[in-house]
Amino acid sequence: ERVELKAGNLTINFVKKLVIVNGEELRVSPKEFGILSMLAKQPGRVFSREEILAEVWHGDSYVLDRTVDVHIARVRRKLGENAFHVTNRQGYGYCFEE
C-alpha cells in the first residue's frame, strides 16, 4: 500500500496522516483526512457518497449524504489552489485527479 501521494505541490502522507501544501502542514479533521485519503489512494476512481459514508463514517445511520458534500467543500477550501484535485462527477460522486 502506498505511503504517500505527491501531486504537484500537494503531498498526502497516509501513514502520518498529514496533508502538506507548499511544505506547510494543513489542519484537517479526521473525517476530512479520511475522505481525502480514500479518494487519493485510487486516483481517477469515482466514489459515491454512499461509499464515502460507509468508509469514513463506518455506516453511522444518522449521517446524511449532504454531510459528505459539506466535508468535501471544507477539504477543497483548505486545499486552496490544489482544490482542483478533488472533483465532482455530477450524479455519481467524487474523485481525486492527480
What does this 3D model show about the protein?
The protein is α+β, with helices and mostly antiparallel strands and 98 residues long. Helices cover 35% and strands 22% of the residues. The protein has helices at 30-40, 49-56, 65-79; strands at 4-7, 10-13, 18-21, 24-25, 86-89, 93-96. The protein has a 4-stranded antiparallel sheet, covered by helices on one side. β3 (18-21) and β4 (24-25) form a beta hairpin.
Largest sheet: 4 strands, antiparallel
How far apart lie the N and C ends? 17 Å
Helix content: 25-40%
Shape: globular
Low-pLDDT windows of residues: none
Please tally the helical runs, counting DSSP H or I stretches of 4 or more residues.
Answer: 3
- Return the string of H and E elements: EEEEHHHEE
Rg is 13 Å
What structural category characterises the helix and strand content?
alpha+beta
Strand residues, percent: 15-25%
Overall residue-averaged pLDDT value: 93
* Strand elements, count: 6
Strand order of the largest sheet: 1-2-3-4
